[in-house]
Amino acid sequence: MTEPDSPPASAFEFSQLHADVIDRLKLDLLIVLVNRLGGKVDIPVPEVDGAGKYVFGMQLTVKEITGNKITDATVGGVFHFEVRKKQ
After folding, report:
1. What tens-digit pLDDT sequence spans the chain (87 residues)?
2. The domain containing residue 64 runs over which residues?
3. Number of domains present in the structure of the chain
4. DSSP secondary structure, 23-52, as one string
5. How many C-beta atoms surround the C-beta of residue 77 within 10 A?
């Protein structure tokens, strides 16, 4: 993934940039999770329909942040995922 040439000029641009990065990661993360479960997962439709009762949290911990640049994120970064029932 490449970094933008210049920082976002507005909060909206930053939000859009953030959304674009997450969208690009979704498929990669789904592939990794399915691979961790053996490479194939069958999920009944009612289970997917019931997912609205839960919230999904994701956090990326990186090895080092220098100024506004993330260093070694691909080497030392770790994604953390959590699913909880809505309160």
Report:
1. 445 556 556 666 667 777 888 788 888 888 999 999 999 999 999 999 999 999 998 887 776 656 666 555 555 678 888 999 999
2. 53-87
3. 2
4. HHHHHHHHHHHHHHTTS-----HHHHHGGG
5. 14
